[in-house]
Structure prediction request, 255 residues.
Amino acid sequence: MPAPIRPDEAGAAPCDPAHVPVHVGIIMDGNGRWATARRLPRVEGHRRGVEALRRCVRAARELGIRYLTIYSFSSENWTRPHHEIAELMGLLKLFVRRDLAELRAANVRIRVIGARAGLGKDIAALLDEAEALTAANTGLTLVVAFNYGARQEITAAAASIAADVAQGLLKPEDVDEDLLSSRLETAGIPDPDLIIRTSGEQRLSNFLLWQAAYAEFVFLPLFWPDFDKDALRGALEEYARRDRRFGGVMPCPAP
Ligand code: FPP
Prediction:
């Protein structure tokens, strides 16, 4: 049984620290549908999505989450119309430029996963700068998955191991789960405990396929621009009610 949740001074239920997931991954879905439902251009949904992202990072810090990975642009998003891709690139630049100082001051460490190749030089430089300037921070680690695809990540890890085996640096029997994990872009980051997807869709869409092996999933019936602290708290409460067994069994209750 999860521990009871106590009301805080403001009357809202805080999450029991013992049950707060260390690492939360979020698939921020539904920007386009949010905008279409309001007869607005899809890009307006993305703009409002950035505001939701700001709320989310703030709430994650307040609720005690240590790692937050956000799926911002997938390897497959290149198939979108050119102007929408340009808008998403512009929003990333704006987010980093506008928010970097605040994130830095809030002790947030930024890490970026995903292929830098294919991104504009200015964006790649900005992402490098955000990582470098926050590298010594010890609070929330914000992992931005941008131009990211899990299959590509796993393929690259396998290729790097194969190259080491071919050169005699590794033997085939050295290859185990820890070695493969250490070759992923998320090396050093604990696996996600909880993955949240907004918009009601229920799939992973090439997000953290290896790392999510034992993650809990919470699918929220709201579009990403409507995401806020209450939504995150609700997902954490749902997570706290889950029994995580990692393939084992629950201990038998005492007779
Ligand atoms: C999915 O909504 C969202 C994305 C593809 C991008 C997520 C981007 C943001 C939240 C804003 C930008 C933030 C950064 C840091 C770049 P969708 O367009 O697939 O919505 P739909 O499924 O309703 O069409």
User: Anything to note?
Assistant: The chain has one domain: 19-154+193-239. Confidence is low (pLDDT under 50) at residues 1-13. The radius of gyration is 19 Å. Residues 28-33, 46, 49-50, 53, 72, 77, 88, 91-92, 95, 199, 224 surround farnesyl diphosphate (CB under 6 Å).
